[in-house]
């Protein structure tokens, strides 16, 4: 028997050369392109990542430019807090910054001695605590209630109805409350038909803080419901089934399964809410300022507007706004640190 070239004594041909595994080929290519130090560290060089993600970077570039132009560049104007700024010292308000005299921390000293500032700060903190206690738990409770509805159609309708006021302007919200709780509203007219007169919740200064909290709940609770329902949708049904097999009732399943699943979202929203503690609202209070008086409706946002826009004291208003922003940053950092102590991520990781 003759043997052909390349055949074995038994007449069979040897197997073809096996190609290298794909992973080995990729590793060899990576070693040729990535520096050895970066390869050992498991990091991809910046130029490689830039070339890989250039399409995504180009898509986000307009948003970044808008943020820089309208959010960060105006921060440079805070230097007027250390000046006696006069917009009329120059023909251009921007160039007037370079011609206004420097006064150091004089505006901040004036702020400390101003009783109107402390009154606005007191109202702001009081409203923040009240809204944190009364407003923050309501979206959680409503999300749990909607999530317990079995029929998806009923759940979707209820969710849409509660979310709809989020798109209303504060002008419309105040108008609706005026038509219901005002002196000429539905409740006042009904009470007057039965011999009770003088009901006007919209002009009651002592109850104003509860009124604005109710307005905030009606307007913005739907947004929180959406967030918590999204978190509830990620909870595995196996956990509920396992808890039910262990004999846990509805309340125990909610306490041991649902609430722990919501805890990261609750911590995140709580940190953001604490950071926004000194911004309880501007338009909402400005619209109702004349009805209840300055003493009940003056908060830091309206105080800055009143001093800066109405009175033209731009340097003092900038100083108040700068202190307000600095305190907000400190509150975010403190609340995020507290979230880390509880084992949650918060706004950023450790």
The SSE string, one letter per element, is HHHHHHHHHHHHHHHHHHH
In the predicted model, the low-confidence regions spanning at least 5 consecutive residues are 16-21, 24-32
- Give the tally of β-strands: 0
Structural class: mainly alpha
Rg on CA atoms, Å: 31 Å
What would you call the quaternary organization? single chain
Number of helices: 19
Q: What is the general shape? A: globular
Largest sheet composition: none
**Helix fraction by DSSP (H/I, runs of at least 4):** 55-70%
Strand content: under 5%
Straight-line distance between termini: 77 Å
Mean pLDDT across all amino acids? 82
How would the blueprint of this fold be written?
Blueprint: H1 22-33, H2 36-41, H3 46-52, H4 54-72, H5 96-99, H6 106-112, H7 115-134, H8 137-147, H9 152-163, H10 170-181, H11 186-193, H12 208-233, H13 237-245, H14 250-275, H15 283-287, H16 289-292, H17 294-297, H18 300-310, H19 314-341
């Amino acid at each position: 028997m003759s043997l052909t070239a390349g055949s074995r004594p038994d007449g069979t041909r040897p197997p073809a050369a096996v190609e290298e595994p794909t992973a080995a080929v990729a590793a060899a290519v990576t070693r040729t392109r990535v520096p050895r130090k970066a390869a050992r560290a498991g990091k991809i060089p910046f130029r490689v990542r830039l070339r890989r993600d250039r399409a995504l970077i180009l898509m986000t570039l307009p948003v970044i430019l808008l943020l820089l132009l309208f959010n960060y560049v105006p921060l440079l104007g805070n230097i007027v807090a250390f000046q006696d700024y006069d917009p009329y010292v120059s023909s251009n308000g921007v160039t007037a910054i370079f011609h206004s005299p420097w006064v150091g921390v004089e505006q901040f000293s004036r702020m400390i001695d101003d009783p109107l500032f402390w009154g606005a700060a007191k109202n702001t903190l009081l409203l923040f605590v009240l809204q944190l206690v009364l407003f923050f738990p309501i979206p959680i409770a409503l999300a749990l209630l909607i999530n317990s509805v079995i029929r998806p159609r009923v759940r979707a309708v209820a969710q849409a109805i509660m979310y709809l006021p989020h798109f209303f302007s504060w002008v419309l919200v105040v108008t609706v409350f005026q038509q219901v709780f005002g002196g000429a509203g539905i409740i006042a007219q009904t009470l007057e038909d039965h011999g009770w007169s003088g009901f006007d919740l919209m002009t009651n200064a002592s109850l104003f803080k509860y009124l604005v909290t109710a307005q905030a709940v009606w307007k913005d609770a739907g947004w929180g419901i959406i967030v918590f329902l999204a978190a509830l949708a990620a909870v595995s049904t196996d956990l509920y089934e396992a808890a039910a097999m262990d004999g846990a009732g509805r309340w125990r399943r909610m306490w041991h399964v649902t609430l722990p699943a919501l805890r990261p979202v609750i911590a995140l929203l709580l940190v953001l809410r604490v950071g926004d503690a000194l911004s309880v609202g501007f338009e909402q209070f400005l619209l109702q300022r004349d009805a209840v008086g300055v003493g009940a409706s003056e908060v830091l946002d309206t105080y800055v507007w009143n001093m800066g826009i109405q009175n033209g004291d731009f340097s003092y208003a900038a100083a108040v706004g700068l202190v307000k922003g600095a305190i907000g940053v400190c509150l975010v950092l403190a609340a995020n640190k507290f979230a880390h102590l509880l084992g949650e991520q918060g706004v950023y990781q450790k």
